[in-house]
Amino acid sequence: MIALVRYMFTVLLFSQRYLAPLLLFLGLVAVLTSSDTGPLTATYASVAGAMLPCSVWLTMALIGLEDQAHRSVVVVSAGSHLRVLLATVGTATVWCLLLTAAGLVLPLLFGAHTPGLADLALGTEAQLTCAFTGMAIGLVCSRLVFRRQGHALVLALGLLLAVLLGKGVSPVNIMFTRLQNAPDSTDALVPTGVLLAVAAGFLVVGAAVTQAITLRKA
Length: 218
Description:
This protein is mainly α. It has one domain. The chain is built from 9 helices and no strands. The chain is globular. The mean pLDDT is 90.
């Protein structure tokens, strides 16, 4: 599995398809946190919001790297469709962890903050909550599910709006509402951790749906 993740990471790296979502993330973080002096709860909520569309984009780009013939070769070499899908999720997670590290540090450089461990932990939880939710959307809107990427893009945009704006529909919307009213990072750690677990469940469901459709098409 590690070798498969390494392979996919390298293919995405050399394809340079990570550049667009990476630049989007960095640009959004710079705009949203530049000269910011407010509480880090709100700051890291903004960074997490930037993570959401970028994780969707990264996941869809990763799955779309290879055509059907090349993917079939990878599946045969790996031994099953499931192993390839799990490696895809693992690779997307590695990229999102790298973005998370950048999302923790950049607001401290762009603004005036004195972070504590609770702030950094909350920032990690918030970004991973959005990353897992975005990866779930990216999976069900990928080429594995939709042959026509125009339809997939429309669905991805619709799901992004739903998880962002739907009151109580997703862990992302609930998290943003709570972080806006959180007095400090310590009080928000446990509720955000619960929402992170829910987002991980979303990712598991998204992977299961994608795997079922992939096997049906095979």
